[in-house]
């Protein structure tokens, strides 16, 4: 039997989820996730997270597998005050729902093996595509700086790997119940400008061809990578 207090409706829980506030098991406490792009957070944001966790949570913070920051164990009764307090701080809710999610990146910016400035690229990509919504499902992007793939680009809907001559792109990867290894596009993208064009075409193709609640990898499996390549007329 659910421990959910009777005053919380399913519609309210769904609305909270849209704002990156998730009901925990037992439904009496919630976790609030905040946006982190490229795995980088300024110290003022970290202090703000700590203050909210101390005041409204239980003084702990969880770092998610996709480099996000989550404050767990916030009682339902404190949610409104927590959201009012957060609105005055330099924090943004994480992206949630059928949209481009926060973009993760390895520290290729300063890693001795890094071929590209991964964290800057994650920021550029988020600025360009981070508001993209109304997609068939969530759309995860990861950037890595070399063939070691520390940020797991093959397990994201779209992965970018920096190499000495440009960017390798993987499409349709995902974890979950039926994991799928992303397909490597058969060309190297030589410049950041061209990379932005390629990614836009990929997201547009997914928006046009994906069924509701269908992950990108499943769309590729259903329609075929060759169709994606033909219809997007890639000219790297
Ligand atoms: S993927 Fe390469 S550049 Fe990025 S952290 Fe790993 S080893 Fe360094």
Features:
Alpha-Beta Plaits; four-stranded antiparallel beta sheet; single chain; 236 residues; Sulfite Reductase Hemoprotein, domain 1; five-stranded mixed beta sheet; alpha+beta; binds iron/sulfur cluster; globular
Per-chain topology:
Elements: H1 10-18, E1 21-23, E2 29-34, H2 43-56, E3 62-63, E4 69-75, H3 79-87, E5 104-105, H4 118-129, E6 141-144, E7 158-163, E8 166-171, E9 183-184, H5 192-209, H6 216-223, H7 225-232
Helix pairs in contact: 2-3
Bound molecules: iron/sulfur cluster.
Could you characterize the architecture of this molecule?
A five-stranded mixed beta sheet has the order 5-6-7-8-9, covered by helices on one side. A four-stranded antiparallel beta sheet has the order 1-2-4-3. Helix 2 packs antiparallel against helix 3. The longest helix has 18 residues, at 192-209. The chain contains seven helices and nine strands, in the order H-E-E-H-E-E-H-E-H-E-E-E-E-H-H-H. With 236 residues, it is an alpha+beta fold. It has two domains: 10-87, Alpha-Beta Plaits; 104-232, Sulfite Reductase Hemoprotein, domain 1. The structure holds iron/sulfur cluster. Residues 106-108, 111, 113-114, 144-146, 148-150 line the site of iron/sulfur cluster.
């Amino acid at each position: 039997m659910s421990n959910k207090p009777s005053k919380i409706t399913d519609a309210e829980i769904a609305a909270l989820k849209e704002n990156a506030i998730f009901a925990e098991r037992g439904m009496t406490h919630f976790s609030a996730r905040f946006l982190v792009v490229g795995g980088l957070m300024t110290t003022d944001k970290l202090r703000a997270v700590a203050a909210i966790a101390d005041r409204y949570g239980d003084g702990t913070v969880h770092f998610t597998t996709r480099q996000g920051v989550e404050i767990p164990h916030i009682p339902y009764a404190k949610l409104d005050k927590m959201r009012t307090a957060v609105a005055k701080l330099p924090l943004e809710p994480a992206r949630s729902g059928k949209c481009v999610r926060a973009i993760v990146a390895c520290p290729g910016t300063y890693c001795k093996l890094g071929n590209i400035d991964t964290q800057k690229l994650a920021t550029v990509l988020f600025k360009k595509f981070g508001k993209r919504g109304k997609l068939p499902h969530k759309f995860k992007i990861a950037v890595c700086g070399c063939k070691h793939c520390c940020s797991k680009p093959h397990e994201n809907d779209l992965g970018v790997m920096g190499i000495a001559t440009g960017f390798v792109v993987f499409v349709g990867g995902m974890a979950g119940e039926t994991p799928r290894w992303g397909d490597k596009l058969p060309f190297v993208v030589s410049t950041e400008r061209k990379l932005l064009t390629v990614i836009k075409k990929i997201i547009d193709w997914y928006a046009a061809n994906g069924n509701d609640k269908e992950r990108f990898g499943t769309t590729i499996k259903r329609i075929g990578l060759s169709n994606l390549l033909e219809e997007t007329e890639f000219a790297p």
